[in-house]
Amino acid sequence: MSQYIHGHDAAQKTHAARTAEDSAAFLLPHLDKHTILADIGCGPGSITLDLARHIESLGGLAEQVTGVDTASEAVSCANTAAARAHLPVTFVQASGTSLPFDDNSIDVAFLAQVLHHVPDPTAVLKECARVVKPGGIIASREVDYGAMLWYPPHPGLTRWRAIFSSVAALNGTQPNAGRHLPLWFRRASLTDTTVTSSNWVYSNKADCVQLATSWASRTQEEAYVLQAAHALGDVQEGTPGKPVAGDITHAAIKQIAEGWHEWANAPGALFMMPHIEVIARIPSDLDN
């Protein structure tokens, strides 16, 4: 389903702290005690479990929620979190283009920060439309890397975004997914849509340091460094014949990692991540 550019190790720690409130607030008013929900691309499951708690608070059951992810390590992490939380939420490994649900069998398909990882977002949305009941909804929230802003400016962060965007392009994915999201829904023949936006803002020292630590770690993961080398045209032949990143890449990664930490410790540090949110309603017989 996806090409997770910067690996899962460092990212999972950040993703495991996400909640329904910070990642799915636009969806919560559409849920009730009867909602059968699938969290597509659920990662370590923190949002999924929060959504289950919310449905429970409305009088429903946690088992009405299922998490789906293409990565076995994410599913394993999510199952562990569910057991610790004593929530009977099911997590399964499957592709977003081949969901493990019957036609017209769920009320809500939810995707948070998923479509910028996949080469064919429209195909994923069409598959969601297959499994959602008439009258149900598909809800997606996507970040837009090109619209991110930070202060103070730093060449390390500028280089981080440029290289990340190049790596994404080489993988056939779209880091500026937020601005493309309404069009992707339209291409999937989902035209009854509501579009909103919201931001993640990092401004206090602890949050800035946490963000910087996460991204510095992600950019230094071995798999990402090699992808960066391909983006920079700096792949060298290692031993025995194994491709490795050259000095130009390592210098760039060093500048990026140091840049994140220097930014986080600067007076008045600020980082904003803008998100676009789309809710699409599946037509029902009552609409005719």
Automatic annotation (TrEMBL):
What's an example Gene Ontology biological process for this entry? methylation
SUPFAM superfamilies cross-referenced by the UniProt entry: S-adenosyl-L-methionine-dependent methyltransferases
The organism named in the record is Corynebacterium anserum
User: Which terms in the Gene Ontology molecular function aspect does this entry carry?
Assistant: S-adenosylmethionine-dependent methyltransferase activity
Q: Which keywords, in A-to-Z order, does the entry hold?
A: Methyltransferase, Transferase
Q: PANTHER family of this UniProt entry?
A: METHYLTRANSFERASE (PTHR43591)
- What is the protein's name according to its record? Methyltransferase domain-containing protein
The record's section on InterPro entries has: Methyltransf_11, SAM-dependent_MTases_sf
